[in-house]
Each structure stands twice: as structure tokens, then as C-alpha cells.
Amino acid sequence: MKRIAVILVDWNGIEVTLPCLQSLNAVKPSDKFTIELIVVDNGSTIPIAERIKNKYRDVIVFRSEENLGFAAGCNVGIRYAIESRFDYSLLLNNDTTVEPEFLNHLYDYIEMNPAVGLAQPKILFQHDKNLIWNAGNRFNKWIGLTSTKGYGKKNSDKYDSITTMPWATGCCMFINNKLFTEYGLGLLNETYETYYEDVEFSFRLREKGYEIAYVPSSIIYHIAGYSVNSNKETQEGRTHPFVVYLHSRNRIFLLREFSTWYLFPTVVLFQIVYYSLLMLRFLLLRRPKKLRAVLRSILDGINNSYDSMNRSFSSPIVRC
Prior knowledge:
eleven-stranded mixed sheet; alpha/beta
């Protein structure tokens, strides 16, 4: 029987992590696999292990005293899954809930298709389960643009075909651990910290010759933006400038690494226009911190610099 490690990363989000765990406890049992739930407490202000254990004793909780970032937090769980000889790792955002059979569909498809190394489900909005958050993904190599299929559209059979795609969202990725143990695929790139780490991981997976699949019969629901958007509106908006910095810098990191040389002219031209319009927007909205964040992200992205990262990757990880 195969073993699946389900990995959630929590940063001050216990109020959404608990409903996520509740929905995972309702996952339909299978005679083909077993699951183990793993939560990485990524430096939450108040440790969450006790609150989780009070409700779900079998959940494994790892605690970092500092916020490692999403990629490094996921890697804590993936390393445990590899060391413990799990066959699959499922990375799942903690602000999601799942349908009882979502994992069965992902498992069956990837088991029947050995060329597929990674699969993702159809993802609908939590607040309106008739609206799509993600129904697969695209990448326009000519201009270096990632995009999502179906975002904000009404759910319909138009989005019910299994397809291969260039990248999968880190909101939910079902990964064959053989990619790590037998085929030399590295873990999530921790220099990205958060944003585009899923795209970078997907691109490296495809370079190994594996496919990425969208499996729409598998369905989950996503709050979206829970950990990055504040409830309080400020002059800078609801999103922290550091989020803008990471998103903008990592986009440049990705394109530096994966853009084909002969497409550089069109990619660079599009990015110049994109970042110019982004800075103009923040200028007109009088958001100086976000404007400076974009400027710094461009410099760090071009120089391949990580100096602006306000995280530590050396803090101790404790199993609770």
C-alpha cells in the first residue's frame, strides 16, 4: 500500500488550518494508499501545536521559531516525507478545504500515467464554490508571462478536461517522491521564498522529462490571499510591500533562468513595459513603499541578489 504525506504550512493561520484538517479527516478511505497529515508551524507568533493536537492527535507538527518562507516551510515536510519513505507528497495551502474524493482522483491518475510527475486539482473559491480560482495554467514563452485558466469564471464542463500544462500551482501539488529519491529533482527553491517557487519547481520537473497534469475530477476550495492580505486598508493598500517585492523579484529570477536566448528581446521588452506600468500605478496611487519595493526588486532580480530577504533559513526545526 502506498503512503502519502499531506503537508500544510501555517503562519499565524490556525483559524483556517483547523477547518482544512477537518476536511482532510473526511477524505474517503482507500485500499490503495494511506495518508499522514503534517503541519509545519512556520514561526507563528503563538505556537499552534497544542491547539492542533487537542483536536487531531495523529497530526505531526514541526515548529520553526522563525518564518522560513513558503518554499522552505514546504521543504521541511518534504524532507520528512523522503526520510520516512513516503511514496507521494501533497503540498496543500492551509487556507483550503477539500472534497472527500479529491485525493483518490489525483492518486489514480498519477498511478496510471507514469510520465506524470506532478498533478493538481481544479480549485474553486471558498466564498463562492461556483467560481473558479484555478483550472490549469499557461506560460507564454514569447513574453515570459504566466497565467491561470478560468480565474473568476463560472465553473462549467468547459474546464473538465484532463490536460497537461507547463506549471502547477503551489496551492495544491501532488508530487511523486521518486522525482526526489531516484531522479535528482531538487526541492522547492528556497531563494524564491514565496511566489513563483511553484513555477520554477514545475519547469525543473519538466526539464527532467516529466509531465504536469490538471485533473479536474479532483476538487478543492481556496480562500485565496489569506496570508498576504490585511483586513485593514492603509495608504499602501491591503497587500504588504514586501509581497510586491517578492512577486516582482522572483518573476525576474524565473525569466533569467528559463527564458530561451533567442526570445530575450521580446521577453525583456514586455517586462520593461510591465514594470514601468506597475511603477506608474503605485506612483499615481501614492504608494511610495510599493514603488520602492518594485525598484528594489528589479535591481535584486537583475543582480541575482538575495540581500533583501528578511528571513533566516538556519533557525531550528522542532517536531512537536
